[in-house]
Design brief:
Elements lengths: L6 E5 L7 E6 L3 E6 L2 E2 L5 E2 L12 E5 L8 E7 L5 E7 L13 E6 L11 E4 L5 E4 L22 E5 L27 E4 L6 E5 L2 E6 L5 E8 H4 L9 E2 L2 E2 L13 E4 L7 E6 L12 E5 L6 E4 L6 E5 L8 E6 L5 E5 L4 E3 L4
Antiparallel strand pairs: 1-2, 2-3, 3-4, 3-5, 6-7, 7-8, 8-9, 10-11, 11-12, 12-13, 14-15, 15-16, 16-19, 17-18, 20-21, 21-22, 22-23, 24-25, 25-26
Length: 343
């Protein structure tokens, strides 16, 4: 389906049936019901959002679509800083309630305009995970990704459904640095720009955008990701580019170079749609600049059987998505959103 304006994220929350939410970079969220785009905007915060390039309204997450009217968005504000904000749906309507905004998290990101991360998602433990970029610039000039005192270049984990200790969210006591060993919110570190990540049961797949040579995919159990160091900015992929190396780090299960015009990985999902046959259990991903759709079999010890799907290329491929029925979607910055079907 076409007709969207710079779509960058697609999400059909559990319990939403055939509803799919499409995030437009300038600050609007539209809704599809099946293959039909509904009129109007579910949310319009264009006045709060700085766009475009790597900035904008970048993702949306729902804790429990059936029983909870709250939802959360991730965007860069008019100063370029990262914000996570809670809103509520109007009762009985597919529209955000005016005046319902509640600020959850603000992270300074004013020095550079790139590497904003971009995704939040509720995990299988019911907590909100947030992927942040390293703050921008080449080679992480401020050293944020390795710094336990910075929220940049990290995977964060919080509970926004509860306020605690003077904050608009609670921090799980099981977070690895909670209690004074670093920022309480950090779950994993050493990421450059985790534009997209996904959960599959109790595992997580993080596609981390590389600098100028290598793109990577990290795959861990949730327990294994707790306190993990994914290596940036010492490592780009498996290559040591800025010594010294950390004493230990989690290595990617898959990498690829920028040969052939590739530039930026767009992470996807492990396919669980029974209608997609041979793709079931495979991780589908692509690249912003090349647009070729690919997949591999994810394994903790390393990916296997990587290859092209043989489908038409998607120009300016920005995101994948799944819905309540496990259907898989893909979006283009040019305005198109498509669902994978088996023919």
């Amino acid at each position: 389906m076409g007709g969207f304006d710079r779509p960058v994220y697609v999400h059909g929350p559990e319990g939403a049936g055939d509803l799919v939410f499409v995030v437009e970079q300038q600050g609007r969220v539209k809704v599809m019901r099946g293959d039909r785009k509904l009129r109007g905007a579910f949310l319009n915060i264009a006045g709060r959002v700085s766009c475009c390039g790597e900035r904008g309204l970048l993702s949306i997450a729902f804790p429990d679509f059936d029983r909870d009217r709250r939802f959360y968005v991730y965007f860069t504000d008019d100063q370029g800083d990262i914000r996570v904000v809670e809103y509520k749906r109007k009762r009985g309507k597919l529209k955000a309630a005016e005046g319902s905004a509640r600020d959850i998290l603000e992270i300074d990101h004013s020095r550079f305009s790139n590497h904003n991360g971009g995704q939040l998602q509720f995990g299988p433990d019911g907590l909100l995970y947030v992927g942040t970029g390293d703050g921008g610039g080449a080679n992480d000039p401020d050293g944020n990704a390795q710094d336990r005192g910075s929220l940049l270049g990290k995977l964060l984990r919080i509970n926004p459904l509860r306020a605690r200790d003077g904050r608009p969210y609670a921090v799980p006591g099981s977070n690895p640095y909670a209690g004074g060993r670093g920022r309480d919110e950090i779950y994993a570190r050493g990421l450059r720009n985790p534009w997209r990540f996904a959960f599959d049961k109790r595992r997580i797949v993080i596609a981390d955008v590389g600098q100028d040579r290598v793109e990577e995919v990290n795959y861990e159990t949730l327990r294994g990701a707790r306190g993990a160091n994914f290596g940036w900015d010492a490592f780009e992929g498996n290559a040591l580019i800025e010594p010294p190396a950390p004493s230990s780090h989690a290595r990617p299960i898959h990498t690829y170079t920028h040969a052939g015009g590739a530039c930026s990985i767009t992470g996807g999902y492990i396919v669980r749609d029974p209608g997609l046959g041979p793709l079931r259990g495979r991780y589908v991903y692509g690249d912003l600049c090349v647009g070729e759709l690919r997949s591999f079999k994810p394994r903790l010890g390393g990916a296997r059987d990587d290859g092209a799907l043989g489908l038409p290329r998607i120009a300016s491929l920005t995101s994948f998505g799944i819905d309540d029925r496990r259907h898989l979607y893909v979006a283009s910055l040019g305005g198109g959103v498509w669902r994978f079907v088996r023919r």
